[in-house]
Amino acid sequence: MTADLLAWLNLGVRWLHVIAGIAWIGSSFYFMWLDARLKADETTPPGVQGDLWAVHGGGFYHKRKYLSAPPDMPEDLHWFKWEAYTTWLSGSALLILIYYLGAPTYLIDPAKADLAPWQAIAIGVGALVAGWAIYDGLCRSPLGQRLKLFGAVWFLTLTAAAWGLSHVFSNRGAFIHLGAIIGTVMVANVFMVIIPNQRKIVAALLAGETPDPALGKRGKMRSVHNNYMTLPVLFLMVSSHYPMVIDHPLNWLLVAGIGASGWTIRHFFNLRNASRSEPMVLVSGVAIFLAVMLLALATKPKAAVVASVVPFSEVQTLIRTHCVACHSAHPTSAIFAAAPNGVAYDTPAEIRRYAPRIYERAVATDSMPMGNETGMTRTERDRLGAWVKAGAK
Ligand code: HEC
Q1: Which atom number of ligand 1 is nearest to the Cα of residue 354?
Q2: pLDDT tens track for 104-130
Q3: Which pLDDT does position 128 carry in this prediction?
Q4: Which candidate, 88, 76, 119, 106, places its Cα nearest to that of 25?
Q5: How many whole angstroms separate alpha carbon 391 and alpha carbon 362?
Q6: Arithmetic mean of pLDDT over the chain
Q7: Which residues are near ligand 1 (CB < 6 Å)?
Q8: Residue 89 CB: number of other CB atoms within 10 A?
Q9: Taking 80 as the threshold, does the pLDDT of residue 302 lie above it?
Q10: Are 245 and 256 in contact (CB under 8 A)?
């Protein structure tokens, strides 16, 4: 019953998270595009950055960006902040529900660090706080003024975090935390810098004063950073679906490469929106992705060669010992109410049918058994692998 309720709670919160995330990223992409496309000419009044016409949904839109006070401050001013806050709140709830309540299964990998749940949670929360402190410190330092150099330093910092986290947490736990670090930075940018600065600007304008232009500039800088971080963070959020990346021995490097390709592809679109078409930037983004793929394939670990024939009875014992607590029509594991992904190994036919996927997750990688609470060994994995290689008879 508890497992059933948790599964529904998980679904409800995840749905909210996806909806809020799409709303947030949608408006963020739209405003980046709008800013880049605004045009000014001799008829543009002073204090206006530019205008833009667009057609959508059967009507025409006329947008204008004011840098100083509009002649009359509108009563109904839209702020765009709850999308970001809802995304973060629901994301944090998911992190707690899945990774913190289920720490032994989802977060802790005793082969890397045999942490108690509270220790793992403290490291996870500490990483989120440290991520923001380092990022914000870098932004406020002189480095913050040099966009490209800042980008390089922040990218290397995140790559180091990927390496470090992947050495203390389970792979999925490590990369969800990396995504959460970036997501937290993005939301904190909205909450701690962009929105407070906008409030100060509006207050100054209402008081008939000239707002400090640095306020707007700082907000814009954080908003540009957020834009570049969007695509990498989206990949990290779905990364647990890609064991060939996150369970690879070079996972931190592969993830850094995929992040760099997302960053580069975003850069292409930002340039294009500003009417600077540079197809080579897009080609580079795709090339980085392909390089990551080739590197992953070339360095994919192979199962050891096992000389003796592995009988099916031994395979059944292995699967019963290490897998069936979860992968069964009636799981005995307390945290699953149904077979994960609908994959059960209750019968010989099921075990044989899923043999190639068993190989991918329990032999070629250590991604299963999830959490490895039964302590499956490398030798056992290689025996399982030998059976699959011999035709899964
Ligand atoms: C503690 C519970 C648990 C145990 C034990 C466990 N798994 Fe899983 N398994 C999961 C969950 C949850 C998923 C779905 C998430 C995912 O794909 O990573 C999953 C997914 C899988 C998949 C992917 C299914 C698909 O969609 O193709 C395979 C293959 C798999 N497990 C194999 C195994 C094997 C083999 C073992 C035993 C050596 C095992 N699992 C033990 C929880 C478990």
Answers
A1: 29
A2: 989 999 889 999 999 999 999 999 999
A3: 97
A4: 88
A5: 16
A6: 91
A7: 105, 240, 322-323, 325-327, 333, 340-341, 343, 357-358, 361-362, 368-371, 376
A8: 16
A9: no
A10: no
